[in-house]
Structure formats: structure tokens, C-alpha cells
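TL;DR need C-alpha cells for one chain.
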Amino acid sequence: MSGSVLIAVTHLLGSGHLVRAAQLARALAEDGFSVTLASGGMPLRPMAGEPFAFLQLPPVRTEGVDFRNLLDEGGLPAAPERMAARIAMLEEEATRLAPNAVITEHFPFGRRQLAGEFQALIAAARIANPAALVLSSIRDVLVTPKPARIAEAQERIARLFDAVLVHGEESVLPLARSWPMTAELAGKLRYVGYLGNTVASPPLSGDGAGEILVSGGGSAAAMPLFDLALEAARLSSGPQWHVLVGRGVSEGDFARLAASAPANATVERARPDFPALLARCALSISQAGYNTVLDLVAAGRPAIVVPFDAGGETEQGVRAGALAQAGIATCLRLDALTPQRLADAVAAGIGRPVPRGLIAIDDGRRAAAAVKRLLARRRWPADP
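>> reply
TL;DR here they are.
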């Protein structure tokens, strides 16, 4: 056994943070670590059968991009008692495990509204094990906040964190593209590759070949894209359009989408065989979230990405621009997009050759190896 690791994550809008944290937990467990994943967002799927232990905190979520106001499952403001219970559960788990390493997903670069519980977790872990390694886990692109918040995050990195695991490649998208870099932060960065599932999912059915596949991740943020795609389908001839709607979209909105679909389009809920559908589609239309982009890269199919940029979000725009520059996808902006322009882009994109091998996808082994190296240096400081 390589030691124990406690990972803390709270996804608020989509499911990407939890998906990435779970993949990291899986990789660490398969490399010999005893891993516990504590999740404070809405339950996504059953975690039974995973090689790691799972702790569900009383969940919180947000409405759209209003990240300042945390809500409970029923959409009411999260009560102080709920927030206190979350902290107590994290502290109890850290005390019980006395972990060799604590990993916080996205914090302190984001989730400042949950800073109290992340810091309480770190403090409890270091009381239980003064040698505990504290790491931040982040994606390749961050949303750049106001200068005061950048300074706050930089201070926390310097004071609390031993290193930062960047799930990306510096040669593809250096963190400096989206976050101001200091010499101290640069010295703590460990680029560990793009973190995705490298095992292809078996198709659940034989459908999907040659279609226009429209997807939008797990949240309701893709509703404007879905509406636009169905209007574009109405203007199109040729392949069938297939719209996959995430579980974060309400039943009412899902029913409205299904009712508005033209004869050449089908609307259904997101499916676990999405990678298989993607691999045999004629063209993909999606946003540019981290996990979606990795699925696109793995599939190697012609793609149109429409980055989510509501509420001042910049992350997907930066990533989509890099994809377009590399020739992997066509980038279109929602505020300048019309159904006809989308239909024309689809017609032009079908059959377009897509370069392969520009972005390598890792299953987490590089991240696990980095954690082992950091732990070794923590235990034996004289090691090179």
C-alpha cells in the first residue's frame, strides 16, 4: 500500500469536477493508494464498485452561473446547519484517516465560497498527520478572477499547498494562458497530462452511425445550444440529428426540447455509450468543457465547439480557441450564431480531416506517479 489519500471536490454547475476527481481517485487506488473521495455536489451516479471509498456530503448546488449563492437539493438557500455539517464530516474523516495526502479539486483557484470547509479539512488532516502532503488538482484552463481574488488564491497556495497537479500539458495549454504566473506558483506546478478514461465504452446499441451528434455535458447551461441546434436541423437535409440532454436539464425543459424536434432530429437523455456514439458520428456539436474535449480528441471526428461563456466564464473559450488553432475543431461563438450559420458550418464540416495525436490522454498514471514522488520527497527531504 502506497499510503492514504483524501480527495475533496464540490461540483456546482456541471459534473466535470466530480468526473475528474473520480478518475484521479481511481488511478491512485489502482496504483496502490487507499483513497477516499468526498463529494459535496449533487449526487451524479452510484459509486458502488469503485476501487475507492466514497463520502457524500450534504450537497449544495448553484442556479446557473450564480456561484455566490449556494442552494440545497430543493433549491432553497443552503442553511448554516448544512454548511456546518459538511465541515464536521470532512474534519471527522480527516481525523479518522490521518491521510498521507489531501487533494482539493479546484481550490484555492476557485470555490472561494467554500474556502472555510477546504481550509478546515487541511487543518484537521495536518493535526492528524503533521507530515500530510496538501495538493491542489486543477484542469488545464482556469477562469481568471478579479485581482484581489488572484492575490487571495496565491497567498493560500503559498501558505497551505505543497504542489499543484495540472491536468493538462504545458506544451498544449500552459496555465499562464489563463492564470497570472509567479515564480513561486510556477515552481509548484506539476503537469500530469490530460486526465480521461482511456478505456473505450462498449456501445449499448448499433445506432448513431453517420449522424450529427449534439451534446452539452451534465448541466442546463447547454439549453441555448440545444434550441439553436434543433432550429438548424430544421433547415438541414442529409444526416439525422441526435441531441443528448444532460440530467441537469429539468423534465419540463427536456419535454419542450423533445416536442420541438423536427422529423430529422431525435432528443433523448445523455447515454453512457456517448463515446461510442461520438466515434461513429459524422460530426459533433458540443460545448468545450474539459471532459467533452477529451472525448472529442479520442474520437477524432469532425467537430464544432460552441464554448459556454455566460456570466463572464472564459475557460471554455480559451480551450476552444486552442482546439481551433490546432485544427481539431471549428469554434463558433453563441452570441454570433444563427440556425442558418450553424447548418452551413455542419455541411462544411462533414468529412473534414481531423489531425490525430496532438493531445495525449492519460488515465491518471502520471498523476499517481507525481503524488508518489512528492510523498517520497516529503518523507526524505534529502532525496534529489
